[in-house]
Amino acid sequence: MTLTVQLSIIVGYLILALVVGLVAYRLTDRTAEDFYLASRTFGTIVLLFTTFATLLSAFTFFAGPNVAYQEGPEWVLVMGLMDGIIFAILWYVIGYKQWLLGQRHDYVTLCEMLGDRFASRRLRGLVAGISLLWLFPYVMLQQVGAGTALEALTEGAVPYAVGAGLITAFMILYVVVAGMRGIAWTDTLQGAFMLFATWIALLWVLAVVGGPSAATSALEAEAAHHLALGSDFYTVQWMLSTAITIGFGVAMFPQVNQRFFAAGSRTVLKRSFALWPILCVLLFVPSFMLGAWARGLDVTIPEGENVLPVVLAEYTPVWFAALVIAGAMAAMMSSSDSMLLSGSSYFTRDLYRPFVEADLSEHREDYLARVGVVIFATAAFVASLWNPATLFELGDAAFSGFAQLALPVMVALYWRRTTRAGITAGIVLSQAFYLSSLFVAVVPRVYAGWTAGLVGMGLGLVATVGVSLLTSPAPDEQQSLYFDELGAD
């Protein structure tokens, strides 16, 4: 009976999200721009919550509490405060300029904008290829999170592969049907629900164990070092490196970056980034503190399991634990569906159209985009069956990989003198260095406490500026046009 209740709630919640997508499908134009950007019509609430829900992933609900459980609650500072503030600033610094250019030139992707700015099909394809490379492990992260969560919640009755397959099937069906409009609608529903459910879960668990004082005392008795700021894990260099690479990486995530183009007006864009840090704190505090307090509670976390599902199964009723996990799975789906949609747009607009079929029609592009979703999601699912790394390792690699794009892009947006050779050199050098740190044993991952991801960003910045100073702009680059437009606004 317990298993039936759990699965009924989880599947029911996912079906509700699918129904919302079907309603949106009836209002969707059969054009690529509407499929990718909902015809650039988002208001403040929808833009804010669709961006918010897009980032509510397995990294938030499972990897974050796991880190807080193992190392202490300082993870709240890294994600809740530092990245809430860093990304809000980047939303304005990068996002507003992208929005201005998108309004004038109908850009759908960052790659399209850069390719046009530097009159380079190769640069456009390079950025698209790199983005798809780093998007793949982050889609895998959602499938791994779903599989492990269902397996833990049902005590093995639902195997890992079945859970991962369930979330994959739903998100394929949902994205193919709904497009950006449906995704944004359900993101708004899911974001609001997860804020409410996570706080209720925190209050419920605290009520059962005797309140925050009792939970803190139990944590002190079990792991007193968790209550002291700083540790061998939370060094200043590591915290700053992680906060910066995650914040800048988020700004380059295709599913987030594309939302810069989708705002209905500049007022919508500005209101949304102003409210962003508040939403981050409201979500990260309860989920990460549950993970930290769990260390002192009378609950055993099996090796390799996620903390949050085990704690909820122990201290809350079956139906509530299932509801929260259903919401977490829906949040994973809200991340994955946006990733698949954006990844599909990068493939069709920035790889297939420029290099294979230049006269691709709107309707054929719309069709290829939906086929691309199926192929990408299926490939990520097959790869997730090997479960090659922890959720934190998968997420951290993706964030840092995307972060390597951020500074060359910012230089190109703000410095007229940036050349095609300069931005290409910055992107290639930083990516090569960071990939080497992951896969080549002789390349260190840490430099005096600073991570290779942050060091790579610095190398990319130096290369972009240095090579630009040593080279001249190509005659067909759009430097004067773009900067005159931005300056005149």
From TrEMBL:
It is found in: Cell membrane. The lineage of its organism: Archaea, Methanobacteriati, Methanobacteriota, Stenosarchaea group, Halobacteria. Belongs to the sodium:solute symporter (SSF) (TC 2.A.21) family. It is a multi-pass membrane protein. InterPro entries: Na/Glc_symporter_sf, Na/solute_symporter, Sodium:Solute_Symporter. PROSITE patterns: NA_SOLUT_SYMP_3 (PS50283). GO terms for molecular function: symporter activity. It comes from Natronorubrum sediminis. It holds the Pfam family SSF. The chain crosses the membrane at residues 6-25, 37-63, 75-94, 123-140, 160-180, 192-215, 235-253, 273-295, 315-333, 367-386, 398-415, 422-441, 447-470. This is Solute:Na+ symporter, SSS family. GO terms for cellular component: plasma membrane. Keywords: Cell membrane, Ion transport, Membrane, Sodium, Sodium transport, Symport, Transmembrane, Transmembrane helix, Transport. GO terms for biological process: sodium ion transport.
